[in-house]
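Extended Data, panel c. Modelled sequence:
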Amino acid sequence: MTDLRIQAVDSDAALEQWRHVHNVIVPPAAMSLDDARERRERYRLENAYLGDVLVGCSTVRPPVGEEGVATVIARVLPEFRRRGFGAALYENGLAHARVLGARVVETCVLAVNVDGLRFAERYGFVEIERYVLDGETEEWVDLRLEPGSGSGH
């Protein structure tokens, strides 16, 4: 995994790659390039590459509220799972969230993404809420990192 490279989304080409991974992993929340541009203004978006091959992406939403809750989401394309790429993306995102002052870290996973839920639980996240957005049918799961679970292993 020494060839894994994680870099900030800093161009429209990189943003299009981030959007591709996002839309593959969470099709009910598929977004346009304009939607992704808006996200890039508010959140830290990163892509992960194995050599020059795109393997995943991440989103870090900065801390909000009195609790300082940040959201860290790591996404890995199915054909690259179980090889440590999600862990690298997550650890990188978690470190960035902590630099931003996060005191609490959450993540959000599409309920049908069993791999994503297992990954979050393995890293110390516990389910706090399941919900369906207004006018939609897909169930989402919000999870919170248990205190002291830092890197989860």
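The first strand starts at residue 4 and ends at 8. This feature is highlighted in the accompanying rendering.
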